[in-house]
Amino acid sequence: MLELNQTAPTFALYDAHENLHQLSDYQDHWLVIYFYPKDNTPGCTKEACALRDDSEKFAQLNTKVIGISTDNSKSHLSFSKKQSLAFTLLADPDGKVSATYGALFKLGQVKFCKRHSFIISPDGKIMKIYRSVSPRLHSQELLKDLKDLQTKTSNRRAMLPHNILGLLSPTFIRLRSEWEMPWSPCVRLNYAQNPAPLRLPQMAGRLFGMQLLPPSRATSALRISELPCRLPGTKNHHSA
Predict the structure, then answer these.
(1) Is the domain 12-158 a CATH 3.40.30.10 member?
(2) Cβ–Cβ < 8 Å for 77, 16
(3) How many percent of the chain have pLDDT more than 70?
(4) Beta bridge partners of 189
(5) Cβ contacts of 224 within 8 Å, gap of 6 or more
(6) Domain limits, the chain
(7) What is the pLDDT of residues 153-192, one digit of tens each?
């Protein structure tokens, strides 16, 4: 059974025009994979048309939509043309990919996809799993959850040190204590010739927050140096 934050299973399936699609093709996008039972059936048509009508909203969220069923490419082509679908349908006639995602119903010779969906992040992680959906309402549900997930992801990235400092790539600052506890490391940020001292509160080896002066525009000239400092009342055990 797939779980949240697990790497999504890879796949290689053909679309309605016999073009091969792989999970790695969507690395720079959020991805909705929705499994559905059968082309041109009432529930599946409602679900597909709702997703079609919201195509522009998904695009604004940098999200691609893929539908997967056990129908073949020819059936997908007919269904796509009939309903003017703007997203990709992939054929999984043997059901192997559907089974990998836990979305295959099989009883003897009868097999079809369950109505399951997944939201996958640009780095290939499963961020949301739907095991039971309403064909009519599912598109709106996906859009709401995508917005929430992207907001949370954006907030987490904003708190990374290199984003706070305005750097183009991650910067690692190693902190060390020259005195016994309590102590506070002081990191000096040199923007060209304008030094700006910065204190980083630390507890149990984890950084809990920081305050910065506005950085210089010349972030490429940023140099970080490590300067130990001592709080009032602490005893110095090492010479600087």
Answers:
(1) yes
(2) yes
(3) 64
(4) 196, 224
(5) 171, 173, 187, 188, 189, 190
(6) 12-158, 166-227
(7) 876 665 555 454 444 444 444 333 333 334 344 444 333 3
